[in-house]
Amino acid sequence: MAAPAGSAGDGLAVLRGMYAAEARYLAAGGPGVADFAPLAPFFAPDVVLHQADGLPYGGTWRGHAGMERFFVAMSQAWESFEIGEQRFLVDGPDIAVLTQVRATARATGRVLEFPILQRVVVADGRITEVWPFYWDTAAIAQACADQG
What we know:
By secondary structure, this protein is of the alpha+beta class. The protein has helices at about 10-25, 65-75, 135-145; strands at about 45-50, 60, 80-90, 95-105, 110-125, 125-135. Mean pLDDT is about 90; it is low at about 1-10. The relative contact order is 0.18. It starts with 7 loop residues before the first helix and ends with a helix. It contains 3 helices and 6 strands. The protein is globular. The longest helix is centred in the N-terminal third of the chain and has 20 residues, at about 10-25.
């Protein structure tokens, strides 16, 4: 049975749909190659993504154009960024997502494995705000630092 409109199940469906679209986007070449359009419907036009300032792609990214620029910045930092196991906790419009990541830094070739805990807000069937929390932003910044 489908979840009623506006239910927690809708938010989880939106988030799972976005992750599937993101995987297709990256498989198609990602930033600068693939079209962002299949991802756009999952994000509100005024979406806000808050990344820790200490990250190579830190800062606040706003709107669809901001999300596109964020994906470019991520691809400049990471040669690969593999999503492993994910766990979801839904509480109304808020979804907590614990994701295991294995990533290879483009600048150094270092491979890191780390968790990301995200607070994602879904309203009216779209992601409106994302707050990712990394365990060790300094280790990520160091791994991604250009040594040349």
